Amino acid sequence: MESEPDHENVEQSLCAKTAEEELNKSFNLEASLSKFSYIDLDKELEFKNDLIDDKEFDIPQVDTPPTLESILNETDDEDESFVLEDPTLLNIDTIDSHSYDTSSVASSDSGDRTNLKRKKKLLDSFSLHGSVMRHSLLKGISAQIVSAADKVDAGLPTAIAVSSLIAVGTSHGLALIFDQNQALRLCLGSTSVGGQYGAISALSINSDCSRLLCGFAKGQVTMWDLASGKLLRSITDAHPPGTAILHIKFTDDPTLAICNDSGGSVFELTFKRVMGVRTCESRCLFSGSKGEVCCIEPLHSKPELKDHPITQFSLLAMASLTKILVIGLKPSLKVWMTFPYGRMDPSSVPLLAWHFVAVHNYVNPMLAFCRGDVVHFLLVKRDESGAIHVTKQKHLHLYYDLINFTWINSRTVVLLDSVEKLHVIDRQTQEELETVEISEVQLVYNSSHFKSLATGGNVSQALALVGEKACYQSISSYGGQIFYLGTKSVYVMMLRSWRERVDHLLKQDCLTEALALAWSFHEGKAKAVVGLSGDVSKRKAIVADRMVEILFHYADRALKKCPDQGKIQVMEQHFQVVLMCWENRLYDAMIYVYNRGMNEFISPMEKLFRVIAPPLNAGKTLTDEQVVMGNKLLVYISCCLAGRAYPLGDIPEDLVPLVKNQVFEFLIRLHSAEASPEEEIYPYIRTLLHFDTREFLNVLALTFEDFKNDKQAVEYQQRIVDILLKVMVENSDFTPSQVGCLFTFLARQLAKPDNTLFVNRTLFDQVLEFLCSPDDDSRHSERQQVLLELLQAGGIVQFEESRLIRMAEKAEFYQICEFMYEREHQYDKIIDCYLHDPLREEEVFNYIHNILSIPGHSAEEKQSVWQKAMDHIEELVALKPCKAAELVATHFSGHIETVIEKLENQVLLFKFLRSLLDPREGIPINQELLQISPCITEQFIELLCQFSPNQAIETLQVLECYRLEETIQITQKYQLHEVTAYLLEKKGDIHGAFLIMLERLQSKLQEITHQGENTKEDPSLKDVEDTMVETIALCQRNSHNLNQQQREALWFPLLEAMMAPQKLSSSAVPHLHSEALKSLTMQVLNSMAAFIALPSILQRILQDPVYGKGKLGEIQGLILGMLDTFNYEQTLLETTTSLLNQDLHWSLCNLRASVTRGLNPKQDYCSICLQQYKRRQEMADEIIVFSCGHLYHSFCLQSKECTMEIEGQTRWTCYKCSSSNKVGKLSENSSEIKKGRITPSQVKMSPSYHQSKGDLTGKKATSEPVLDPQQIQAFDQLCRLYRGSSRLALLTELSQNRSSESYRPFSGPQGGPVFNSIFQNENFQLQLIPPPVTED
């Protein structure tokens, strides 16, 4: 029955809150901490209403509790849909990624249950769920346990612990370690130690399976290394002496474990390693004097849940004889929850088990605790303040007493009662899925350890009573598998996959139950499902395939009872199978039943024909369902004629000839059964031809291949061919494509060497007339393709070729003409076919290229094609000029003049020459190999000036092989002034080009100046501005290579031209565009300022007669603008110089600090001879100290060849830091220099260094203020840190030019090329950024 304990029974360290408040607060916390971070691990679980709502908390107490049957029959108020579990739980080393289980230990009493009042008969769960659990004996481990007891006196097994390894403890103190293949890896301990410590009473393996803790019956604890088998710790003082270890558990922290002794106390063991010595510190968490604890369970989390906010508390659940406690070990010891049992049977034992479950899209730990026949579930959450909340969930009331509780995944639990029966329960629906008897395991009980018999039995009577049926250490779970330790064996149990459950029912001939179970999988109503993954549609498709297999199996069994004789209607009425399949559109199943159960092969065809024939005869479009049926009909006919069963398998050999004859006879029937008077003859063949002509003929073609030597089959073939001709040729309701398919099929059959078919040749002539009929212009492409396919299939032998060509030309079947001309090697005529065919005319270029370039054709054939192409060159150019140019360049390169002569149309000639000569067209033409004369290029330029003058300059820039004088004459002829100026500039006549541009500019300015005031149109300055910009660009491009006088000859006339309109305009009546002209004039001044000195510009302006007569105010704006520009440039120059000086000063300061820092040797002895440098005073030896800290005698370094002469200076390298292959790279290896491994300027100390001031030579050498090579290299490295020119070069350039009066920042030196200046370099960039930090 289901009830809820009172709120007062739950004591929390937090203030009391309602369940609603706790839930809301928990959800808000986890929205920020763990929302969707853990749910991905269990994404296939359904998370709906796992908690009880508020109304259920107010359920009143009832005198008579409801029975389990009434609970199971209740509607599912949680409304949880189909839940999937992980399918990979069949091996020991497999972990359920969708199930967050922790190791769980449970116990219960074994009292007599004859006095149970609530026991009722359960529903037959086997018929509903099948066999949910699969249990098997681990034969390898079981045999070795028995062998160890016999051969090495290991004793009987007492405890088991499972991780990726399996550990079994024995009564004589041995621990047997097995791997996943049941092979014995280690045997830890000895019988002598067992005699001292007693039996192993508890085992625990840490999370990474590297350590094993063994607890003994006499109270000792040992720790073993599972990789090497070494004993790491032997702990004898962790708890009071004289008590047995009941439980020992690793926590998630590998340095922390919990143990529980028979005195009822709980201790925390902390493992440390100090100075290589392993120690263990013990702290009492709970004293047995306050209530004996008999079960402990720390919360374990999988690696993917290590970041869960709950794990930081290291929770521990403890069960005493009176209450449940949940405490946190970290960050400090704290009790989070206590829960008293109330009245309980004193012989029942508390059980604890943690598991991570997903509720409302959040994953949190859930604690299951039980004693007797009630299981409580507590959900643990963490709120925003960091406190723990414990929320009650539905509890489970049973009719049997428990001795073990194990989570197998988040929705399924396995319970063991006191009579050793396993009960598999779905947690959320509380439905019992299966009951399994495991008495054959002969489960090991831990009663002797609870009674502490090894230490004299000094335990309380209550604890001894609880331990009567204690089996804590005999059951261990890992990865969705449960291991049971028997006295001579080890068993493992796991959930079966959904396929296993169905197959298990099928093996027991429970076909109906298997189909019902599969249907529950399909509908998502099954429990404890393993092995189904993916979305709902994918799962349904997988289960549906299995259900079809079950149906076939069911049909096989049912059809074995089918009567051998009798009317088919009687059998249909008897079995109802065929009708059921037809109504549910199971056409494959229907055919299968007819074939396998009744040996009837014609009836399925009749049924399908009745569906698809009426709409086809009426000319209607078939529905999707009817198309499916028609396709199945074709496949079925093909299978029958090939001797194969449908949909799989083979027809019995003795029935194959009979089935073939029946199908042939059926197809060639003159009329169908129950035919109407209006039915046309041969309805079945007619229907199949209308449905899919090509596929039906393919079926016949395959059939004809299989029956070459069968005389009767040959007769059927001829008969079917005659019927096909009669049906299709004599009726006009078939399309040309369908008729063509028939004659293509016939042509292929007639072309076979062993052909036995006969077809009247006049029929082919009729088909030719039908396809080439000039009166019918519809479906022209379709008729041509059909005739081409017919000819390619071998039908050419059925026609007279000359007549065929005439009819094809008349019908404009150019592909047919090409096919025939190619047979006769008349390749030149094929060009006409391409040119006349609008669909394929562009393919003519590839065809001509292939004929002329691919070997295999005779010279005469190639010559005819070449001549034909030359004759049609104008058509080819009109079709695709670029393709025609490529073709001419490849195959007609020596006859380009001839091609040009043939192109009388000037527009076509222009397009052709542009494709041939302009490289921008993208045609891969090698101009050098083509060797085009300048006359042709100049002809193209003349056409370019006529038809596309706007592109003349761009084209001339990429063209080659043209003469400048002739080209200039052409451009002057067509008055293209910009083009003429470009050519003059290219010729070198800069002044002539400038005069043309200036004249054009003046004419445009004159147009604006003389613009009438009454003109309606507003004259635009766009043309003036464009012409001026082009003129300025001309002057800028060429000023670099001109002297000062030549520059002034360019710029001053331009300035004068721009100022002339302003001089003519009256001051009283300003011109309409005066402001715009002033702006353009200012643009000219700014542009020329980079090439003409400012005084020269001002002098020229003031020398003007107009401005020299007192009109200076009119150019005041121009002069002020020039002065502003000059001031800006001067300020920019001064600021830049200041920044560069500061930057250089900073760099040199850092460099000086780096090279003058003292060296600190690591030792006071030579790193080679290992003698102190002071003790070798008898030798005039110098001491070499490197910045890496190593110290050497110079003689020792020389003996190791660590010195070399470079540029007259001695270069040393550190012997320890540098290998011999680096010595030759001293000048290049800047990184070695920076690290101090290679240095030319070491600190040298003579033996008398500490006694005298050194010799005069040394003083003189050290006093010279010059940079040595290392300092210069370091300075260069600093300079390279800045991209671009060095600061020193910039300052040098600035200082040189500032001394010149005519200097301007970006003009370059006068009279010389400007590229000698750093500032005129196109890659010059001024980067005003903070200097980088260099290494010391």
From TrEMBL:
The keyword Kinase does not apply. Signal peptide: none annotated. It comes from the Eukaryota. Residues 1239-1251 have a biased composition (Polar residues). Residues 1228-1263 are annotated as: Disordered. Keywords: Metal-binding, Phosphoprotein, WD repeat, Zinc, Zinc-finger. One of its GO terms (molecular function) is zinc ion binding. Residues 1166-1218 form the RING-type domain. Residues 1252-1262 have a biased composition (Basic and acidic residues). Coiled coil: none annotated. One of its GO terms (biological process) is endosomal vesicle fusion. WD repeats lie at residues 193-234. GO terms for cellular component: CORVET complex; early endosome; HOPS complex; late endosome. InterPro entries: Quino_amine_DH_bsu, Vps41/Vps8, Vps8_central_dom, WD40/YVTN_repeat-like_dom_sf, WD40_repeat_dom_sf, WD40_rpt, Znf_RING, Znf_RING/FYVE/PHD. Plays a role in vesicle-mediated protein trafficking of the endocytic membrane transport pathway. Believed to act as a component of the putative CORVET endosomal tethering complexes which is proposed to be involved in the Rab5-to-Rab7 endosome conversion probably implicating MON1A/B, and via binding SNAREs and SNARE complexes to mediate tethering and docking events during SNARE-mediated membrane fusion. The CORVET complex is proposed to function as a Rab5 effector to mediate early endosome fusion probably in specific endosome subpopulations. This is Vacuolar protein sorting-associated protein 8 homolog. It comes from Aotus nancymaae. The gene is VPS8.
